[in-house]
Amino acid sequence: MLETSARLLKLLSLLQTHRDWPGTDLAERLGVTTRTVRRDVERLRELGYPVHALQGTPGYRLGAGASLPPLLLDDDEAVAVAVGLRTATGSSVTGIEETALRALTKLEQVLPSRLRHRVNTLQTATVRAGVAPGPRISADTLMTIADACRRHERLRFDYLSPRRGASRRHAEPYRLVNFGRHWYLVAFDVDRDDWRTFRVDRLTPRPPAGARFTPREPPFDDVAAYLAQQLSARAWPCQATVELHESAGAVADRVWPGMGVVEAVDEHRCLLHLGAPTTSDLVWMITSVQTDFTLVSGPPELEDALRQQAQRCLSAIEARPRTR
User: Fold this and answer.
1) Which whole number is the average pLDDT over 82-86?
2) Which of these, 211, 263, 261, lies nearest to 239 by C-alpha position?
3) Helix and strand tally (H, E) in the chain?
4) Cα gap 268→240, rounded to integer Å
């Protein structure tokens, strides 16, 4: 039988798995009687843990309290939290770096040496490359928008568009999307009577929140795919659609976020809708998918650009010196 202190920690660990525990199951796990389980539950309550009794059956559930009690983490959970906090110290969200660093310091102080070694090994052996610094965003701004989404309250904000300049917007917020290095708000623009996307780093909320609204049915099933389509096609001057001679699932990993939107046709074909600043960029993006394709639509000069690219590749082979 476990000693009282060790048994309390074991009981707390079981309750933190976020499931309903019949008293008999807890007693069996701990090797004690249900009466002892009841006494241990009372001790946990005295320590500030909100352990609730289940309705209709003798059992317990750990609820949320007014303050954050100590957590019991297994080895993998502790490493995952430490890595997540370390990543957060370099986040594009301002105001959380110092908080994340304080939490990481506290965690590393109590990590067993074997786990501290794993975390430090991963950190020292890892280099973040290819990630350009994105625009900084206030954590308060994100929380204001998120709260408006949750409460279904209209959001009023000033917006600075690179094309149209400054404007005052009124929108019904739907979702926040973290896409690559940027944060976006997908919302129904009340003044323009249409769904729009907004870069969060370009908006400044104007409190207080507006009136409550009844959520509208969005014209999309996947908000991330909708945003990808907005960013890849409609936002660029040169747009095209090509039919890829592979299934959507087969090419999904070759189409990076913001490049384009894949639309399934059948098990052997799919459509790729994409946009870019120039036709040369379109050619590069299309050919980078590395599969056969058919041009469906695009600017007239795209055909010439594809022919020139094909001729350039063919000339490179034909001009190569022959080896004997």
Assistant:
1) 81
2) 261
3) 11, 14
4) 20
Distance CA 230, CA 198 (A): 11
In angstroms, the CA 167 to CA 158 distance is: 6
**pLDDT score of 292:** 95
Within 10 angstroms of residue 242's Cβ, the number of other Cβ atoms is 24
- Find the DSSP H helices in 176-266: 223-229, 248-251
Counting Cα atoms < 13 Å in the Cβ hemisphere of 204 gives 6
Report d(CA 123, CA 83) in Å as an integer. Answer: 8
**Selection from 287, 281, 280 nearest residue 242 by Cα:** 287
* Cβ atoms of residues 157 and 169 within 8 Å: yes
Beta carbons within 8 Å of 119's beta carbon, 6+ residues apart: 79, 82, 83, 86, 108, 111
pLDDT at 232: 64
Q: Which residues pair with 138 in a beta bridge?
A: 94
| Contact (CB, 8 A) for 171 and 214 | no
C-alpha 67, offset from chain centre: 27
Please, what is the Cα angle at 298 between 293 and 302, to 5 degrees?
Answer: 80
Residue type, 142: L
Listed residue (244, 123, 130, 221) closest to 180, CA to CA:
130
In whole angstroms, give the CA distance from residue 145 to residue 200: 9
Residues 237-266, mean pLDDT to the nearest whole number: 87
Spatial contact of 87 and 99, defined as CB atoms under 8 Å apart: no
Joined together, the tokens standing for residue 293 give 């394709």
Q: Say which DSSP state 234 is in.
A: I
- pLDDT at residue 282 greater than cutoff 80: yes
Threshold 0.70, pTM exceeds:
no
Q: What rounded mean pLDDT belongs to the chain?
A: 84
Name which of 53-57, 60-64, 123-127 the model is least confident about: 123-127
Tokens of 130: 């290819």
| β-sheet bridge partners, residue 62 | 51
